[in-house]
What we know:
The complex is a heterodimer of chains A (136) and B (324). Chain A is an all-alpha fold. Chain A is 82% helix and 0% strand. Chain A is elongated, with a radius of gyration of 26 Å. Chain B has a four-stranded parallel beta sheet with strand order 2-1-3-4, with helices on both faces.
Amino acid sequence: MKQSIQLSLAIVDGGVSALLASLPRQNVMVTSRVMRTAALYLHLYSSLLDAALHEISLTDPEFSARWDSAIQEYGKLDAIYCYIERLLYRRAELRQTLNDMQQSRLWKLIAPLRWIDDKLRAQRKRKHLQRRAVTS
Amino acid sequence: MTKRVFMVMAMARCGTSTIARGLNAIGVDLGNSLSRPDHRNPKGFFEDMDVTFKINRGLLRLLNHPWTCPELAERMRLQDDAALNQFRDYAVRLVQTRLTHTETWGFKDTNTSLLLPFWQSVMQSAGVEENYIFALRNPLGCAYSNIKHSRLPPESGLLEWLKNLILAIGGTHGRKRMVVSYDLMLQEPLHELLRMQRHLSIASVSQSELNTFASKFVDKKLHHHHYTDADLLNDPAMLAVPVCLTAYQLLMRVAKDELSMQDEEFLQAWQQIEDEFYKYYPLYAYATSIQKENHLLEREIRVVRKSVPWKLLAPMRFLSLLRL
């Protein structure tokens, strides 16, 4: 919301540069928790934003150096990104399986039986944890 | 004379049980409350059940299973002091009880490296001397052995391996500590036991105990996942956590006594490894959080499949499949 207001104000003021300047810059992004998992994008975004603001040219050697270093960093992280992607795919599969089980009509039909089963399991777990409590 | 506590630390499947038994062979008492052997570890875990199940697992449950020290510190800060003090008091009493009739007591648990700040405060309150033994095994050996028992992908095992060592070594600078290689222990058990005795300044050992350990306990047939240094370079899982290779090579030099953990060279090299780990820490923590979520989902599915109501529905599920 705050960002859309900033963008609107920038448009009212006129000028593409003012609009671009109102976009989130490094200081905002560094504090973001999500960005910390993908710090590489911060460098890419920063380089491209500088190019968009005409602070640096796409043909500039400095831009090329920054771009190459980001690509090199991406090469290092590629394997871990693939691993994360596999984990996310597996998570989607598992969620789907569980959802299919819990949404089936048969499963809903035996709700009272499940309620008793859940209570018994909770009781067993409570007893198990009591045996392992530090006070005993 | 100050009583001494020996802590064996590393990820599960790193040979901590063999090293804990080795510690016992050189005269360190492991207590009488040890967990029983099972298919995962036919020769025994040598884990103190009160430490593993009551203290470490109880504390981690209370703190909602943090992954590393930054998370642990944050959650401990948010936690009610009374609940933490209950664990601390119990642990101090336990250490004092275990040391009533002996001068040296040792324990091992894979969660100790994560809970190191807690255990260090316990040791300080109990007034005992801390000694640390880091079990080292080829990271691929641990990761692939872990797949069989926890069904986690090898990358997850490698991250666990690295995290355990980062926390254990980072949290014990300036304290009495040593690295013991599991692979070297299997190759030359007597040599490794005497090395442990020398490094840990244990006065005398019984030769018959050493011989029993070397001839009867150590069984190379139980070493199923054997990997070489070349495998570390070629395995695709290693690409996700490449710093494991540097860490393993450095620690192997320490385990072979080519380098000391007090040397400036070691400290500088380890600092670089730590920096590399913490540089990618948010990414690793994110991967671990998804892995944990998957683990919980798998467990939930397993609970449903094993429940009596689900089994009762088997014929009806079969019929509905036929109709489809």
